Amino acid sequence: SETVVLLAHVNSLTMGNSLEAMGKGPESFSLAAIAKDTNFSREELMVLHENFHAAAKESPDDGTSVINKEQFQAILQKSNIQSTNQGFLEELFHAFDKNNSGTVNFVEYCTGVSVMLKGTTEEKLKLSFEIYDQDKSGKISQTEMMQVLHNMNVSLKAAEASSKGFTDEDIQAFVTKIFAECDLGGDGYLSFSEFYKAVVKYPGLIEFA
């Protein structure tokens, strides 16, 4: 169809044209609108969409407009985002997946990548907060922080200035310490402002790569 041709040749689109994403729950979006909500230019979004659509076409679900976790990790490399920490990439995918669908659509992808590549310090800190806030409740529990640190196998050496390896018991003690010092409300959770205080004291919390 003409729509498929347009998607295959996204660089030929003109300002104001919309791209029709085929497949599950067809969606349309404007490059101009996404550019307004991110730090990308329309030209940069064209390249991102070309890479995204190429990855989505490899899905076993014919014509899908979303990417799964494996495709997400592969396409990040084309956006100059690389990490050898598999756990981090999995947690990042979950943070990008705003509606907990188990997939990431183009708008979700652009929003997240924009923060990682061109975001302000506050925007990047909010993304880090969302990585820990696994149930997307707007607050972080000790269990969530423990789980994320365990999954990513983050080196806590930067935070604790220790040369030893860390067991789950070490991580639990570290998380308990953070909450004792930074959970100022005493409700057993870290709000965004409390998380910020924790990061200032322990920057290793957001050293994911």
From TrEMBL:
It comes from the Eukaryota. The keyword rRNA-binding does not apply. GO terms for molecular function: calcium ion binding. SUPFAM superfamilies: EF-hand. Keywords: Calcium, Lipoprotein, Metal-binding, Myristate, Repeat. Residues 84-119, 120-155, 170-205 form the EF-hand domain. InterPro entries: EF-hand-dom_pair, EF_Hand_1_Ca_BS, EF_hand_dom, Recoverin. The keyword Calcium applies. PANTHER family: CALCIUM BINDING PROTEINS (PTHR23055), NEUROCALCIN HOMOLOG (PTHR23055:SF178). Belongs to the recoverin family. This is EF-hand domain-containing protein.
